[in-house]
Specification:
about 180 residues; mainly alpha; about 70% helix
């Protein structure tokens, strides 16, 4: 693959995820809870065609969706966070749009965020900083509510995301048959 094509794929990966992220949050706050999951699914389908290793990366995306939904469900069930657009029949579960966000984010790990692969400490720092910032942006739009105060929430989310990003990278290495 030539450099121009590789750059375009990385650009699509990064901009596609960011666009889907914003449409997901805006869909929630505007009362269209399925807009985000639909847009994120379209992004993931389009991005799938650029995957170098579709099986390993698809397993990573599905694993991240399951693990991330589980983690955010714990945040919800414990009252740590609240989400708009949740399930009326099971308000303790993380909503579908959060699951979609996890899938979209996982799709960036081997592409636009691929430069973090062999930089565990940097991956931790990036997660510790940008994970909470993402939640804070959602909170600014009332898609997420911090029930424990901003400082405590940011610290907990920082540690969580600081561990999550290197953990997902190691998971991908393991799924791809490499050393974890």
């Amino acid at each position: 693959m030539n450099t121009k094509t590789a750059t375009l794929k990385l650009g699509f990966n990064a901009l596609g995820f960011q666009s889907a992220w914003w449409l997901t949050v805006l869909g929630i706050v505007m009362g269209y809870p399925f807009l985000g999951p639909l847009v994120m699914t379209l992004y993931l389908v389009a991005d799938h065609f650029s995957l170098a290793k579709p099986k390993s990366e698809t397993l990573l995306i599905l694993s991240a969706m399951a693990a991330g939904t589980f983690a955010d469900t714990i945040f919800t069930a414990t009252g740590f966070l609240s989400y708009a657009g949740g399930y009326s029949f099971a308000p303790f579960l993380a909503p579908l749009w959060i699951t979609a966000m996890w899938g979209g984010f996982a799709a960036t790990l081997n592409h636009s965020l691929g430069w973090l692969k062999n930089r565990t400490l940097l991956a931790f720092v990036m997660g510790a900083v940008f994970g909470p910032l993402s939640y804070m942006a959602g909170a600014k739009f009332d898609a997420i509510i911090f029930n424990q105060g901003t400082t405590v929430t940011v610290i907990i989310l920082g540690v969580f995301w600081g561990l999550a990003i290197p953990g997902l990278v190691k998971l991908y290495n393991w799924l791809d048959g490499g050393a974890a």
